Amino acid sequence: MLGKTAGGLFWMFRYLERAENIARLVETGERMALTRPDGADGEWSSILTTAGTHAAYDAHHDDVSGEAVIDWLLRSSDNPSSVMSCMEAARMNARTVRTALTREVWEAVNECWMTLRDLLARKVQTRDLPKALATIRARSAFVRGALHGTMLRDEMYDFARLGTFIERADATARLLDVKYYVLLPSIAGVGSRLDNVQWEMILRVVSAEGPFRHVHGNTRGASNIAQFLILDGRMPRSLAFCYKKIGDNLDYLYRDHGIRKPCHDLADEICHRLSEMTIEDIFEEGLHQFLQDFLARNTALSHQIEQDFRFYR
Amino acid sequence: MGAAIFPNRYEPIGLVSAIAFWDVPREVAPMNSDPLFDEMHYPDGTPRAAYAEFARWFDGEDPKRLRAKAREAEDAFRLTGITFNVYGDPDANERLIPFDIVPRIIAAREWAKLSKGIEQRVRALNAFLHDIYHRQEIVRAGVLPVEMIARNEAFLPQMIGVDPPGDIYTHIVGIDLVRTGPDQFYVLEDNARTPSGVSYMLENRETMLAVFPELFTSNRVQRVSTYPRNLHASLSACAPPACEGTPTVAVLTPGIHNSAYFEHSFLADQMGAELVEGHDLRVVDGRVAMRTTRGYKPIDVLYRRVDDDYLDPLTFNPDSMLGVPGIFDIFRAGGITIANAPGTGVSDDKAIYSYMPEIVRFYTGENAQLENVPTWRCSEKEALAYVLDNLEELVVKEVHGSGGYGMLIGPTASKKDIKAFRAKLEAKPGNYIAQPTLSLSTVPIFANKGLAPRHVDLRPFVLVSPNGIEITPGGLTRVALKKGSLVVNSSQGGGTKDTWVLEDE
């Protein structure tokens, strides 16, 4: 397949993943604002940081308010990571790689785009927000379903999946890094009321409240949560899970092409770290340090894949 | 080769011979007084044989249901993304071409005759191209004046003496036809460069099958869906000498912003070929190769949807970013097949059109089965006499004019205008050509108040390979949706219809 097509698939699925992640951030922010009116504005600020768009937001706004942040994250064309901008970019990439997609995947993406374009044509009113967010979630699920149900498991699928998991690992690591201070083991061993609020937020952003309860019962704790989101290979948004998938897909590419490339080594190193380290090791190294290091490696891997499979040159 | 035949400077030639009816401004649309030929109904309102089944079905349908179905069809098009881009209009970046649910139906017998004529014409076009880029026998024989070639900007001197694989120049051709009576078709224009619209032909059928499946059990309609496979086979059969094993076919597009991008990706997808842009390609070891995830891979046949001028900055327009530097040399050396071959525009140029009857006769030894719109070249004495005698019935155009300037439309012109024009014509007859006005056929569309007749044209698609000439039954029917309008252009309120060729009864 063409290098350009591989790159188009990779980015199409990064953008789709990002659109979903941003929508989930909005959902969490709104939930916090509704249930804890006291501390909401601070949360909106940290949500902007998690979305990696705080500086850009500040450049366009005088202050941080829920209404403005929601609009910025959902539909602003000044924000390249807004849900709508991501959908535009995903669909643009889909058009570029149309020949690599099944009709079902293309139509699911196109319909997702058409629906969101209408849905986000105007400012979303608070009362319409839950329904809008549910629609975004449902439409992205259709795309994922079409991908799983109809795409041939060849290199096209591998690049789509690599994009998904690189983006997802980036999002989870960013979220943890923004909140790392509430995840440090406390001397008391029990979380304060404020910690509990923050933990709830973290779990919600990664849709992990239910799964976490399932594994850890109702006892939340900083290291439990950090362990769950970094090292638990069963949790589909954890760093370990993402890298298990990245490793698999790179491995398929290796078998398919018959050549080991530098990106394979980079991914192996990251996988190795995630499988060898315990959460205690990570705290010892410093959670913030660990996450910064991870984010840098994740980005480096993305660039390496780009080069090794000739996306641009 | 006489040195004087190919001057180095090519002046644009403005001869407009055929009146493409969408070029005619609406308010002056030429029409004569004959009753219009409606393809569905006899003048007394009863349906013609080919439409009998359809008419029966239509009469039994609730218009409300049909309107809902028409919306369903539109949704299907939107979902597929079969849109065209409108340059410079960011709000309407991707527009749908309106689709009308009433099919245009052609009887098997009508089609058989028509397709014979098309095949003959396409054969002649290819032979003409070979000759023009080799010995120019047709010029030597005095059938075609040398200026028609020498001063033709679509003529590519770089193609002289080049032998494309299989001696095929026009792998894909679209012939634009209009109809005026039961057995009367005219060729309005030949499209021998990169004809577009075939994706609409295919998607219109898919949509009709999805929205009105019942119609296809009561009517036996010839399939069009084999086109992409035939296209692939046809292109593969033209693989160049350098090809080893199964030919690798790719489609070259100017990119996602091109108005026909949907079609380019659609055809690549349907053929299982890669869709490439200039920046995906480069010359590697004497071949044109595409950048894949595994490195560069040679291409054998390139179905290019990029104009000649942009194909190779080293040979043609040096500013082109869309092409591949060096591709022309590789083509000349037999390293790649370019479809259609560069320089085919010389055969569908407006200057050449009026000579098509002679061209067909010269290369096939037969009279042309498909008629041209008759064109009088006023430079010829007898023609001039006829034109002067019949000014009030003809359309007279300046050879070098374009856009309707300096044109006389006899039926709608005043006596004074005709008189003034007569003086100009007598002074410089060589500057003018003349054509009769045609009453174009109509096919009904489904309008608010039921069926309403509208003017149509037809573009059948033809594939040419060493294995023969293949014509997909039907083609693309474009329809002028506005009452009385002759403009079928999609940018000006034109739409499309599914085109049925029935199986033999």
Task: From the structure above, extract its key features.
heterodimer; A: 313 residues; mainly alpha; 2 domains; 16 helices; B: 505 residues; alpha+beta; Rossmann fold; Dna Ligase, domain 1; 3 domains; five-stranded mixed sheet; 23 strands; 23% strand; disordered N terminus
Describe this structure in words.
The complex is a heterodimer of chains A (313) and B (505). With 313 residues, chain A is mainly alpha-helical. Chain A folds into 2 domains: 1-151, no CATH class; 152-313, no CATH class. Chain A is 75% helix and 0% strand. Chain A is built from 16 helices and no strands. Chain A has helices spanning 3-35, 40-50, 54-60, 66-75, 83-96, 103-119, 129-150, 155-178, 180-183, 193-205, 209-216, 222-230, 239-257, 262-276, 279-285, 287-308. In chain A, helix 1 (3-35) runs antiparallel to helix 4 (66-75) and helix 1 packs parallel to helix 8 (155-178). In chain A, 49% of the residues are buried. By secondary structure, chain B is of the alpha+beta class. Chain B folds into 3 domains: 3-23 and 34-240 and 336-369 and 439-501, no CATH class; 241-335, 3-Layer(aba) Sandwich (Rossmann fold); 374-436, Dna Ligase, domain 1. Chain B contains 16 helices and 23 strands. Chain B has helices at residues 52-59, 63-80, 108-132, 137-140, 147-150, 198-211, 215-218, 227-236, 261-271, 308-311, 327-332, 345-348, 350-353, 356-364, 381-389, 415-427; strands at residues 83-85, 94-96, 99-106, 172-181, 184-191, 249-252, 274-276, 281-284, 287-292, 295-298, 301-304, 337-339, 371-372, 376-377, 394-398, 408-409, 432-436, 442-447, 450-459, 461-465, 468-471, 476-480, 494-501. Chain B has a 5-stranded mixed beta sheet with strand order 3-23-22-19-18. The longest helix of chain B has 25 residues, at 108-132. The N and C termini of chain B lie far apart (54 Å). Residues 1-33 of chain B have low confidence and may be disordered. The A-B interface holds A 1-6, 92, 95-96, 98-99, 106-107, 110-111, 114, 155, 257, 259, 309-310, 313 and B 78-81, 256, 261, 265-266, 268-269, 273-277, 279-280, 290-295.
